[in-house]
Amino acid sequence: MKKISIFLCFLCFLCDMTHAQSLKDLLLKMPQEVCPSFSEYNLLEIVDNQKNGKPMQTRNQFRTVSTMQELTDDYAHLILTKNSEKELKLLTKNDGTPIIMVISTVICDSLADSSVAFYDTSWQPLRTLDYYTLPPVDTFRHVTIDKATNQLTVSSRHAFRLRTDGSDKPLPPQPVITNTFRWSTEENRFILND
Q1: So what's the pLDDT on residue 161?
Q2: Which of 124, 42, 52 is nearest to 76 (CA)?
Q3: What is the distance between the alpha carbons of residues 116 and 102, in angstroms, rounded to a whole number?
Q4: Is the Cβ–Cβ distance between 28 and 44 less than 8 Å?
Q5: What count of other Cβ atoms lies within 10 Å of the Cβ of residue 89?
Q6: Is residue 83 a contact partner of residue 106, using CB atoms and an 8 Å limit?
Q7: Cα–Cα distance, 30 to 25 (Å, whole number)
Q8: Mean of pLDDT values over 157-174
Q9: C-alpha distances in angstroms, 46 versus 63, 106, 193?
Q10: Residues 137, 107 contacting (CB under 8 angstroms)
């Protein structure tokens, strides 16, 4: 009887340990520093809405509606505002240790600017360069200045993209977004051309 009790305790521990590795569970433990516009209540509401088949939406700290586009056991895509989003992906290192990758994107003048961060499963930050090598800037952003017309042209493409379907097929090329800015002597800065 004692052996059975020990075995059942061990089995419960393993089930609990496996269950804790789900990104949904880790999302509920995410500190507010990782996503300042979200409270613990907002995260609970989104996960609860998914369980109940409701739209995965919540009113964030800025009193605007945020939507979870996708939420699985290893991936989350959260639209925070019309100009910002976060993608979270649960990854596994070669030694089997799970880590969380968070891609934060802000869109300004239709240009997307992203940053990537890595965390262990207790949400302690990890050194990004240990897990990701930054590409040269000119692979995703090219800036030219035409001195004759005082115009600045910025061509960019989104540098961070995640495949969520488990396929190893190459992703289709990202469209290049080009914006032209003109110098405003009144405002002493570049302004996006209309």
Answers
A1: 60
A2: 42
A3: 6
A4: yes
A5: 18
A6: yes
A7: 9
A8: 62
A9: 15, 21, 39
A10: no
Residue with the two structure tokens 């109940």:
52
> Do 182 and 150 form a contact (C-beta atoms < 8 A)?
yes
Q: What is the 3-state composition of the chain as percent helix, strand, coil, each rounded to the nearest 5?
A: 20, 35, 40
Beta carbons of 73 and 24 less than 8 angstroms apart: yes
Return the beta strands (E) in the chain as ranges: 57-59, 65-71, 75-81, 84-92, 98-108, 111-119, 125-126, 141-146, 151-156, 177-184, 189-192
Q: How many helices (H) and strands (E) does the chain have?
A: 3, 11
Q: By the 8 A CB rule, do 179 and 153 touch? A: yes
- Please tell me the distance from the alpha carbon of residue 150 to that of residue 79, in angstroms, as a whole number: 36
Show me where the domains of the chain are located: 1-134, 136-194
What is the per-residue pLDDT across 89-119, written as a single tens digit (0 to 9) for each?
999 988 989 999 999 988 876 677 888 899 9
